[in-house]
Amino acid sequence: MNFSRQALLGIGMILGGSVMLYAMVQQIGDSNKPQSTSAMIDKPSTEQESPQPLTTDIETEKRILAQKQKERAARVAEQERLAQQFLTEQETAEAQALAKARAESQQYVENIASTNEQNAEVETEKNTESDVKSKEAQDTEKLIKAADEALQEAKAKKQAEDKKQQAQAEKNRENAEAAKKEPPTSPSDYQVKRGDGLIKLARQYNMPVEVLAQANDMSPSTSLQLGQNITIPSRKQVQRLEREAAAAEQVREEKRQKEEALAKKSTDAKRDAQQKLSDARKEVKETDAKGSFGVQVALANDQGKADELAKKFQSAGYQVKTSATSRGVRVIVGPERGKVAALALKDKINSDPKVNTTSAWVLYWR
């Protein structure tokens, strides 16, 4: 900033001096121009009584001209001296301004260098201090992390120990509850209280509700009455009743399996009989068999019984007719065209679980 101000001041002084020098040179040039003779000769005064001689006027004119030339030369010399003095002063001022600007510039550069060095030293100190603080922070963070890990490990061990103790306490409590719920060693009477039921008492004494109901000749869904007396079976009775219940359940399961097998067999037989009947009817159409045959499924004692049986077969999807004879009322399914078709119909009826009969037989219809 100071260097720029001094440079501008020096340039301004140079321009001003140049303008003044140019003006002085112009003035000197104008003064050297010769004036006209008529202008230099003084007009004769009208007040003179007689004109001067011509010779005297020429001499005077020469003397005056020489005097003016001397004066003009003196003025020019003075102006040149002043101009030279001004130029010298201007050059001196410029040199001083330039020297001052250089000195200030050098001082500015030195100040900048010193400031940079100081900043570098401060930055170095800051970096060193930052490194030290960073290392201290890292060490502190490591210590905190190690402390946290130790604390977490201690908490985990404490939680594991607490869980183990809770599990053991729960197991002891369950064992105590189970001991309380064990059936008594001998049968005992129990008077029903408010809110009691077979399911609740069975859970209380740790036995199946079916066993408790069986010991009291009840159904598991029987509701107990307030004040009612029931028998709580002993442990041996419970074990025996459980064995009996398991055996009964096994018998029921075997029976169910047999019934399922029989139903499957009946279904398969019915399907086969239906297929045979369809094949027989198809064969009758193709061979144009003669005669109609029916399948007698029952011989009722009276018409009412025959009608009842007819409704059962009709509900199963068969065409049924009744025919009175001397021995009773026949219940006949059909008719079928051809004996082969009638035999297939008989097999179907005998294998149909809906009508539950095995005594059907074929007879000639007409």
Automatic annotation (TrEMBL):
Pfam families: LysM (PF01476), SPOR (PF05036). Keywords: Membrane, Transmembrane, Transmembrane helix. PROSITE patterns: LYSM, SPOR. SUPFAM superfamilies: LysM domain, Sporulation related repeat. Residues 47-56 have a biased composition (Polar residues). Residues 32-56, 114-195, 250-285 are annotated as: Disordered. It comes from the Bacteria. The keyword Transmembrane helix applies. Residues 123-183 have a biased composition (Basic and acidic residues). InterPro entries: LysM (IPR018392), LysM_dom_sf (IPR036779), SPOR-like_dom (IPR007730), SPOR-like_sf (IPR036680). GO terms for molecular function: peptidoglycan binding. The chain crosses the membrane at residues 7-25. Residues 287-364 form the SPOR domain. Residues 188-232 form the LysM domain. This is TolA protein. The lineage of its organism: Bacteria, Pseudomonadati, Pseudomonadota, Gammaproteobacteria, Moraxellales.
